[in-house]
């Protein structure tokens, strides 16, 4: 097989069938990188458990009525700390609100913050990483120093300071403020991973072949490098989603994240902690859901990482 044919097959993410290292099975049928990853994921029970939890949390966020028909804001102090009854399977908190209903509806704010923060960090990290990795030189040096400066700032401490400053000028639930804060502070790891992947991909034969055919930098980055550098980037963003949800809950717990009328696990944990001696259920329920959500996204990211890079197992 010629070098140009090798470059073309590599560009498509497929190992040439004539490659001795591919083995006899690959000689009969070749698979792309993503097909190989899916083949491994289907046999990983951690992937299926994490996926089931993620689907459950997303359904709770999008259609909370599927799980609880009660109004989470319909509170009555006469039901303060009342036990389970009717649709309130977890009882009531100190304000007389349905604990289960508030826990279910609390998923929406957390998922919204996590998803939009990941989208923001993904865009910033993609642009910075692609530019630094492809062009190199002085541009790479400047962007890398910017990444180092942001990485040197403790995430939680900076988020607290920035949230206080931004929330003073904004009204509403605070979702937009938390998303902006997490987006500004959380893009550095994604940028570093993308930069490393681009540096590894730009030296491949298919990139050289594209240059020889007259492709410009933007076309090479978009059509040839990005598809082959995207896998580790997706893994980082999946894990970051769980981290952002935990950070949002922490900020809301400290009363500098989401605000009423938003329903958040962090707000409910902070409120229930003051009355834990009277009833522990209002504290335990959102804490368990928060833990499972963060754990699900981290497990999902680890499973995807192992599938795309079996050497990390």
UniProtKB/TrEMBL annotation:
GO terms under cellular component: plasma membrane
Domain ABC transmembrane type-1: 107-301
Segments passing through the bilayer: 45-63, 111-136, 142-162, 174-194, 229-247, 283-304
Pfam family name, one: OppC_N
Annotated SUPFAM superfamilies: MetI-like (SSF161098)
Residues forming coiled coils: none
Location relative to the cell: Cell membrane
GO BP annotations listed: transmembrane transport
InterPro entries the UniProt entry points to: BP-dependent_transpt_permease, MetI-like, MetI-like_sf, OppC_N
Keywords (A to Z) from UniProt: Cell membrane, Membrane, Transmembrane, Transmembrane helix, Transport
Topology versus the membrane: Multi-pass membrane protein
Highest rank taxon of the organism: Bacteria
Glycoprotein among keywords: no
UniProt-listed Gene3D superfamilies: MetI-like
Family affiliation: Belongs to the binding-protein-dependent transport system permease family.
Descriptive protein name: Peptide/nickel transport system permease protein/oligopeptide transport system permease protein
């Amino acid at each position: 097989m010629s070098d140009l044919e090798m470059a073309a097959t590599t560009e498509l993410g497929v190992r040439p069938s004539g490659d001795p290292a591919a083995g006899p099975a690959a000689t009969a049928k070749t698979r792309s990188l993503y097909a190989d990853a899916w083949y491994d994921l289907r046999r990983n029970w951690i992937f299926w458990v994490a996926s089931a939890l993620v689907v459950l949390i997303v359904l709770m966020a999008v259609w909370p009525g599927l799980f609880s028909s009660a109004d989470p804001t319909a509170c009555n102090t006469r039901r303060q700390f009342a036990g389970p009854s009717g649709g309130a399977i977890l009882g009531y908190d100190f304000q007389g609100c349905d604990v289960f209903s508030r826990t279910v509806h609390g998923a929406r704010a957390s998922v919204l913050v996590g998803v939009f923060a990941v989208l923001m960090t993904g865009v910033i990290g993609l642009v910075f990483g692609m530019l630094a990795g492809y062009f190199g030189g002085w541009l790479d040096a400047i962007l890398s120093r910017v990444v180092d400066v942001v990485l040197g700032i403790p995430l939680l401490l900076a988020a607290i300071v920035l949230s206080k400053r931004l929330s003073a000028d904004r009204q509403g639930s605070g979702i937009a403020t938390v998303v902006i804060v997490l987006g500004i502070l959380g893009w550095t790891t994604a940028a570093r991973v993308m930069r490393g992947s681009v540096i590894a991909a730009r030296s491949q034969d298919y990139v050289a072949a594209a240059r020889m055919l007259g492709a410009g930098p933007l076309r090479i980055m978009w059509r040839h490098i990005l598809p082959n550098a995207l896998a580790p980037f997706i893994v980082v963003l999946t894990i970051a989603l769980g981290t952002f949800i935990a950070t949002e809950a922490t900020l809301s717990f400290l009363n500098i994240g989401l605000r009423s009328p938003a329903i958040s696990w962090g707000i409910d944990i902070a409120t229930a902690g003051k009355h834990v001696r009277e009833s522990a259920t209002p504290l335990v329920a959102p804490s368990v859901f928060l833990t499972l959500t963060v754990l699900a996204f981290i497990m999902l990211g680890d499973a995807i990482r192992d599938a795309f890079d079996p050497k990390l197992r």
